[in-house]
Amino acid sequence: MPKQAIIPPGTGVPIAPFVPGTLADGVLYVSGTLPFDKDNNVVHVGDASAQARHVLTTIKGVVEAAGGTMDDVTFNQIMLKDWADYAKINAVYAEFFPGTKPARYCIQCGLVKPDALIEIASIAHVGKKA
């Protein structure tokens, strides 16, 4: 099965050996996405809502670069630094998924940079529609 790296225009150099997305057989796997600018600095320090919006906007860019839309997202893996931010993040999440929601899970854990409050990885089916 051939795979294709999905790297939207303007993407910075990752802090580890990965690409923003990988497309294989019409399924897009979006790497864990943190609230980073193109230089891997955390944006919106201390603001979980703004960080969630930044992360989901970044994911949207990867999905669109693969030829899909956010309606094609079928699964999200959400990592939070603090459960106190859960409601704020859910409010922003609902803006990006207003209709039928994707399946997901959410865990609390430490993230790669201390100022990051959220990380999301996604799966989307962007292949041929029946």
UniProtKB/TrEMBL annotation:
Domain of life from the UniProt record: Bacteria
GO molecular function: deaminase activity
One GO term (biological process): uracil catabolic process
E.C. numbers: 3.5.-.-
InterPro entries in alphabetical order: RutC, RutC-like_sf, YjgF/YER057c/UK114
SUPFAM superfamilies given in the database record: YjgF-like
CDD domains: YjgF_YER057c_UK114_family (cd00448)
Catalytic activity annotation: (Z)-3-aminoacrylate + H2O + H(+) = 3-oxopropanoate + NH4(+)
Keyword Hydrolase: yes
GO cellular component, as recorded: cytosol
Keyword annotations: Hydrolase
Record keyword Cytoplasm present: no
Function in brief: Involved in pyrimidine catabolism. Catalyzes the deamination of 3-aminoacrylate to malonic semialdehyde, a reaction that can also occur spontaneously. RutC may facilitate the reaction and modulate the metabolic fitness, rather than catalyzing essential functions.
Protein family according to the UniProt entry: Belongs to the RutC family.
Protein name: 3-aminoacrylate deaminase RutC
Lineage of the species this protein comes from: Bacteria, Pseudomonadati, Pseudomonadota, Betaproteobacteria, Burkholderiales
Recorded name of the encoding gene: rutC
